[in-house]
């Protein structure tokens, strides 16, 4: 596959992942035609600051289920291959929209979580952070009396400055940018593939369905599972490196 060749030739490779990276672990994505979360629920009613303040019960119910899902499932073959490629210095880092923590759990070190994480909750009043297990026990109160909420970015909120600036630096200097499992429909996260392309990177999009950015890509792979594609690339890399 051309991607294996590009991976070997590139001096800096960045991976960008979306919910499609974790469907093979058992987690639903958001906009897939057949099972996306937002096909059944209106995100603005659930995953927003308004929902947290005005629709508390539905908000907690939704996020308790998502935290349970993240704890029930685990990183898949694709997550582990990306961690191996980082160890072998084939990739520099992973910019992810996912909040499941699976890249880190699989062993990836340089992971920029643009939309935060379900692994933690924090107090809206004093900012104290707890493991999301507290949430699972139905404990929504901080020791200070404030309300606990998942440490994910809700619609209408700013992205974490640290993750955003690291992702921007990487996107500006990388020479190969590979998108895995994202519809690229949410900004500002969906600007990173463009920034990389505009700074001279080759852009690859591997996604089951077409995305709004396919026409910018140097290579697009549709209708194939990420796990299979990454496995094929890894086999080629091993053959060529022997
Ligand atoms: N292999 C390849 N592609 C897949 C697979 C798979 N196994 N499973 C799903 N996909 C594709 C789907 O076809 C879909 O186009 O992954 C894409 C996932 O897109 P979305 O569901 O829109 O998820 P994502 O792009 O990560 O959403 C971005 O939206 O709701 C917010 O904060 C949330 O981070 C999320 C953001």
From TrEMBL:
GO terms for molecular function: NAD-dependent protein lysine deacetylase activity. It catalyses: N(6)-acetyl-L-lysyl-[protein] + NAD(+) + H2O = 2''-O-acetyl-ADP-D-ribose + nicotinamide + L-lysyl-[protein]. The keyword tRNA-binding does not apply. InterPro entries: DHS-like_NAD/FAD-binding_dom, NAD-dep_sirtuin_deacylases, Sirtuin, Sirtuin_cat_small_dom_sf, Sirtuin_class_U, Ssirtuin_cat_dom. Its EC number is 2.3.1.286. Nicotinamide binds at residues 30, 99-100. It comes from Chungangia koreensis. Binds 1 zinc ion per subunit. This is NAD-dependent protein deacetylase. Residues 1-242 form the Deacetylase sirtuin-type domain.
